[in-house]
Amino acid sequence: MKKRFFLEKGKVIDMINIKENERLSIMNHSCAHLLAQAVKRLYPNALFWVGPVIEEGFYYDIDLGDDVITEEDLSKLEKEMKNISKDGKRIVRNELSKSDALEKFKDDPYKIDLISRMDENDTVISCYTQGDFTDLCRGPHVESVKELKHFKLIKFSGAYWKGDANNKMLQRIYGVCFDSEEDLNNHLKELEELKERDHRKIGKNLDIFMSHDLVGKGMPLWLPNGSIIRKQLENYIYEKEQKLGYSHVYTPCVGTVDLYKTSGHWDHYKENMFPSMKVDEEEFVLRPMNCPHHMLVYGNAIHSYKELPIKIGEFATDFRYEASGAVKGLERVRCMCQNDAHIFVTADQIKEQFKEVVNLILDVYKDFGLKNYKFRLSLRDPEDKHKYFDDDEMWNNAEDRLREVLNELKVDYTEAIGEAAFYGPKLDVEVKPAVGPEVTLSTCQLDFLLPRRFELSYIDQNGEKQTPVVLHRAIFGTFDRFTAFLLEETKGILPLWCSPVQVNVIPVNNKYHLDYAASVYDNLKQIGFRTNLDSREEKLGYKLREAVVKKIPVTVILGQNEVDNKSISYRLHGSEDTTTVTFDEFINMLNDKIKNRD
Ligand code: TSB
Ligand code: ZN
């Protein structure tokens, strides 16, 4: 590779001696300046906020006055960036005093904001100049703009200045820069593939869910196909939970403000809740969590230690205020349905019950063939006295217990400070969506607090009142988020047992084979398979292609041979091979696949 250098604090350092990710990060940051220079040429009044390197490349937040960026502008900017790169100006670093910096950038309120907050004794204030463009920057940068050849502007969005919705909306342009055209092309190909895997795209193509402005942001409507998937997930997990001794309840998706004051949500979780509403003398909130309701269900009777653990489950609708910029398809919604349960245990049962939950999580992920997930132990930030209730002993005790179990189970996990729920530490399962940052799917949370606040008790061996401990757990997390993840992991090719349409029946020629096809369709339906009869006047090839696009797992093709022999010819999704069997054999094949969750 050609020898190159980068500039840092006046030094010139050999590029070869630094790690690849560092080199890429320097190139991406330099490319952000290249973008800014091109923007300045096309929009002379543009002002620049910050242009950091991120995992996916870089972005720059820009104030374009009343202008907004369009798709067309991205190609114009790219062209200008190529021109500047060809010009090949050197990148020159200058250090300056705070007063000089304030003077130099006096007409730029964004730079003044940055510089004013800098401590001269702590930071060296530097700027980098390439040709006619100078930007305040810590660096380092590549030596010359001609190093930046293999880049692409990926997308743009609005972004509030300093992330605050009360501030001005800036234009954010994202890009990426690589060492070679080959690396860049590979990256762009990967991005394309990820876009194809985005559950929002799959959800639209397969008619899984929709949204509508009249219903509101983050409030998806599940279409018939999506509703079938959800029902299958519900049945699946209900059966598992019943076998493990859960009792399922139905409770209202509102509660009074007093309920959430008792639970502590009103103090600790208010910014995530919808505002309250008054009805007659009562003040209600849409519930963000179901724990308070389940605490009341537990408290409805006197319990003996012999009954514990008591597992109260519910497929429960919750409402949370999520920022409008954060809501996303089914993955992050404002109205969600949790696969929730609260397990009431004695202190001695914590370990065994926590273990049972972790094993259930592992079991479910195995059934769905999911492999891309990580366990994360979420702990409190001991400094954050506002978010977390203040009881050091309780926290330390709870966190140690969870660690013990994970070590015993030999589960790999990482620890995250400040990610705990306000009532206790938790184990989260983290997954990476096709687009965007990681999210939590399953969760299991230890709680010593809520049972106290609701004054719950059980009678122990000695006839004394004791306070139970609670495990909050959601295996799917929410049906919404799990479906989003499932669609992305399977690219929409769902296992037979939870596919909206399981079998697609196609007569080769409607004129001769439709009667037989219709009878096969009827029989399958009567047995209970979700079946579609494609009797449209379209060519066979067209219908077969569409069955592939719609990701239907099994397609039955019936022509003269099948009519004569009363047989079934079928194809499985992803294969061009056709197999011919009797009707009974066909049913057995389907049932086997469903039983094995194939
Ligand atoms: C498990 N009280 C507990 C419950 O008993 C609770 O509510 N925990 S939670 O806040 O972590 O939420 C449970 C799960 O809901 C999360 O693990 C996550 O998978 C899912 N979830 C949270 N917020 C959203 C959202 N906005 N959209 C979709 N799913 C969400
Ligand atoms: Zn809960």
Give the secondary structure arrangement, pairings included.
Blueprint (H helix, E strand, L loop, with lengths): L4 E4 L2 E4 L5 H23 L4 E2 L4 E2 L2 E7 L7 H17 L3 E6 L1 H7 L4 H8 L8 E6 L2 E4 L4 E2 L7 E11 L8 E10 L2 H17 L1 H7 L3 E2 L10 E2 L1 H20 L2 E3 L5 E3 H7 L1 H4 L8 E3 L2 E5 L4 H9 L10 E10 L15 E11 L4 H18 L6 E6 L12 H18 L3 E5 L8 E6 L7 E9 L2 H4 L4 E2 L5 E2 L2 E10 H12 L12 E5 L2 H18 L3 E3 L6 H10 L4 E5 L1 H6 L1 E6 L6 E4 H13 L3
Parallel strand pairs: 14-18, 20-21, 27-28, 27-29
Antiparallel strand pairs: 1-2, 1-9, 3-5, 4-5, 5-11, 6-7, 7-8, 10-11, 12-13, 15-17, 16-17, 18-19, 19-26, 20-22, 22-23, 23-26, 24-25, 29-30, 30-31
Helix pairs in contact: 1-2, 6-14, 11-12
The structure holds 5'-O-(N-(L-threonyl)-sulfamoyl)adenosine (TSB) and zinc ion.
Question: In words, what does this structure look like?
Answer:
The protein is an alpha+beta fold and 598 residues long. Helices cover 36% and strands 27% of the residues. The strands form eight sheets. It has an eight-stranded mixed sheet, sandwiched between helices. A hairpin with an 8-residue loop joins strand 10 and strand 11. Helix 1 crosses helix 2, helix 6 (199-205) packs across helix 14 (479-490) and helix 11 crosses helix 12. The model has no long low-confidence stretch (mean pLDDT 92). Zinc ion binds at residues 289-291, 342, 472.
